[in-house]
Design brief:
Elements (H helix, E strand, L loop, with lengths): L8 E5 L4 H12 L3 E6 L2 H13 L3 E6 L5 H15 L4 E4 L14 H26 L6 E5 L13 H21 L5 E7 L5 H4 L3 H9 L9 H11 L11 E4 L9 H5 L2
Parallel strand pairs: 1-2, 1-4, 2-3, 4-5, 5-6, 6-7
Helix pairs in contact: 1-8, 3-4, 4-5
Length: about 260
């Protein structure tokens, strides 16, 4: 059993839906004080209210993760509400599907600013407060797409997700002197609103390509993040955990057919 996170404060960017909401829910159920961050305050506060209704401690906050000013206000508000910041889950990200021939420089920059620059800015804004914690943790939501696999239409997304890991490997060295660990979770295909938008046939085809024959849940990612944020993970930094049901392992669909 992991040491309780009761009284610990955690910021989850992109926490009002999808994987972020699953991460935030797991932390709320574990007794942490959760800040649900979204671009829209109504969505952030609605999610926080869900957690409070089930006995959790949570608040919503609206911020654009491409804005250093917004993120500094987020960090200040978290300290005011909960006395500091112990854990940052840098989760917010977008993945519009556009193939390279149709991809504009502006769309590339938009995805890069949100997914990659947003991770850097989130860490930078929270760092002064994480340094004060005796259990500073940063957990980045990357992906198998980019660091391990590729998929048509996601060149911009894949580049940012691989870039997050490059950032992580240097950040963990720089921040080690403060006792802060920096790690990443790499989800495979997870059942979220975003995946649902791609249609049931896509979802089923993805499930068929996974050895466990099912899509992951947002809580599956949340539990991996919870472990990396725990006291027990204090000696783990600069590492990645792939949570994909074995998706990246088969050489081909034929390998699954013969299993």
């Amino acid at each position: 059993m992991l040491t309780s996170l009761s009284g610990r404060s955690v910021i989850v960017t992109g926490g009002s839906k999808g994987i972020g909401k699953g991460i935030a829910r797991v932390f709320a159920q574990s007794g942490a004080n959760v800040v649900v961050v979204s671009r829209h305050i109504a969505e952030a506060e609605a999610t926080a209210e869900e957690f409070r209704a089930k006995g959790g401690t949570a608040m919503g906050f609206a911020a654009d993760i491409t804005s250093m000013g917004d993120l500094q206000m987020l960090a200040e508000a978290t300290e005011k509400a909960y006395g500091g910041i112990d854990i940052l889950c840098a989760n917010a990200g977008i993945f519009p599907q556009t193939k390279i021939e149709e991809l504009s420089p502006e769309d590339w920059d938009f995805v890069s600013d949100t997914n990659l620059k947003g991770t850097f800015l989130s860490v930078k804004a929270c760092l002064p407060y994480l340094k004060k914690s005796d259990q500073g943790r940063i957990v980045i939501t990357s992906s198998i797409t980019g660091p391990v696999t590729g998929f048509p239409g996601w060149s911009h997304y894949a580049a940012t997700k691989a870039g997050q890991l490059g950032f992580m490997r240097t950040a963990c060295i720089e921040l080690a002197k403060y006792g802060i660990t920096v790690n990443a979770v790499l989800p495979g295909n997870i059942a979220t609103e975003g995946l649902a938008d791609l249609g049931p046939e896509y979802a089923q085809s993805m499930a068929n390509s996974i050895p466990l024959k099912k899509l992951g849940t947002v809580e599956d990612i949340g539990y991996a993040a919870l472990f990396l944020a725990s006291k027990e993970a204090a000696y783990i930094t600069g590492q990645t955990i792939i949570v994909d049901g074995g998706q990246i392992l088969p050489e081909s669909m034929d390998a699954l057919a013969q299993a």
